[in-house]
Amino acid sequence: MQIIYLHKRLYTPGLDQISRYLDTLGMTKGYLILFEIKPSSIIPWETRVKWEKISYQNKNITIVEM
Fold first, then answer.
1. Domain tally, the chain
2. Which three-class secondary structure state does DSSP give residue 40?
3. pLDDT score recorded for residue 14
4. If you average pLDDT over residues 5-14, what whole number do you get?
């Protein structure tokens, strides 16, 4: 699992980082967890939490945004 605080424009560098990390572990599946830094008064939890499964550089990555 890789936990990163990211802005949307840094989405691809985060995927690159988790892909390299999975390579060092010899794994093909992992999680990229992205934390929104805006308070829940601006972005409520009901719309903040999102899950997405993607294939990236021959790896299955689950992206969790919260």
1. 1
2. coil
3. 87
4. 66
